[in-house]
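Good day; I would like, with your permission, to put a structural problem before you. I would ask you to consider whether the tokens describe a fold that such a sequence might reasonably adopt. The full record is reproduced below for your convenience:
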Amino acid sequence: MKEKLQNIKDQALTSINESASLNELNDIRVNYLGKKGELTAVLRGMKDLSNEERPVVGQMANEVRETIEQELEVRKDKLSKVLRQKQLKEEKIDVTLPAKKMDMGHRHPMNIVLEDIKKIFIGMGYEIVEGPEVEKDYYNFEALNIPANHPAKDEQDTFYINDDFLLRTQTSPVQIREMEKQKPPIRILAPGRVFRSDEVDATHSPVFHQIEGLVVDKNITMADLKGALAVFAKELYGEKTRVKFRPHHFPFTEPSAEVDVSCVMCGGDGCRMCKGSGWIEILGCGMVHPKVLEMCGIDSKEYSGFAFGMGLERIALLRYEIEDMRLLYENDVRFLKQF
């Protein structure tokens, strides 16, 4: 047994010294120290030794193992250094060559406009809130004074999941949910994605984005609404921007109005952008209908409020003079690099 151990030691050390690669060195480790290695096979035969011989042979076997492991580590360090030196010579890097150009991403024009709008209204004391895109028919229509079979539903034909749930057609349901959750005063801005079954063209899409605002407090009047939107328009389009309110009808506001701003291209003189009128429509607004307040548990005799809503895509198109809304969704790098 002792002779076998000595032979294993000598053979292993010779093989280690003659090894020329790390892979070869690893094979030597497995051949001698692995589960099926030569040293392991000898140790399994110790059960046949006498009680006096077993400790002596065991000690010698441990010494052989330690010697082989030490030599393996020494040889591994030497081979690693040789391999490293070879790589340094063969794999040269010319640090004077120009670096590879990294293409940086660009903020999407809609994100830029959305952040600017948020900052404007946060500066006026508004809170940003969000709600579910899969909405109940009650919140999307009935709570907004649009009962079943109302003609206004035809204008917002949408994607129904069943009789009770649909993909929201506006972010107005967020306003209803907030009025149910908290008592006035309320000042919120609700941006988000909405859905309507429109055909895709230069100005329409079945998926688009809206930003709606709501203020409810004591003694809120139409003058407060006009003042807030005038500040918004001047902050977004410039100090010289003028605002015009045109009477309109929305089921959930009374009185209601469409809001125009002086053309960002011609300043109101008339051009192709504004079709010669000098004005461009940007949003709809009005005083919150008393029935909507009452349905949300707010006393319409004590509180009043105003609401407004705008399409984010339309605001972005006007701001950057983009003629086709589809450009906002195609993610063409050549287009996005302009912003």
